[in-house]
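G., the chain you wanted modeled:
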Amino acid sequence: MRAGAWFALLLAAGSAGAQEAPAVACGRQAAQFAAGSKFSLWVTRRGVLTRDNPLRPLSPEVLEVLQVVIRGKAATAYGPDHDNLRRGPAPASLEAQSGGAPIRWGETADGLPALLRIRADDSTAVLAELRFQACGDAPKVAEPKRPAAKPAASAAGANAEPGAEKPARPKPQAKPQPKPEPTHTPGGFVLPQGAIP
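Predicted structure as tokens:
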């Protein structure tokens, strides 16, 4: 078989494979992916995170980031491509872990493949293979619980009468004193004058 015919055969096989799994296009809606009846998630946004590697400054690491909703909580799935995604925290936490590098979000999540693979952190095992199910509205994301403020203490201090007792202020804590620097080396030898310990 000639090289040109072989190349045409490979190209035809590649384009036939690409037609079998069309890209997901949900527009402004979320895309639901599921692994059977065990596990389901909604992809709400798609973006790119570029991290600088100080050991390789000329080639930054570009990661695909998907914002997902799992059991009412926001999370991310990120990786170099859709076959090597890892589980991640909420988008703000992922940005903080990446040294403050912002995620550049796209307008829609269109162009996702019909199959997403979530791998373990060491990339050896596939944790889940998620197949596209449907387009729709993602479930609402639960707001994180915030500690309740103590309004009684602040209101008593602001509306107190002039003769009334004021609430006690917390005492400032003493700063820890630094340990004195040793004048001898650990072996008992005296350092020469002018040496910096």
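The chain has three helices and eight strands.

Shout if anything looks off.
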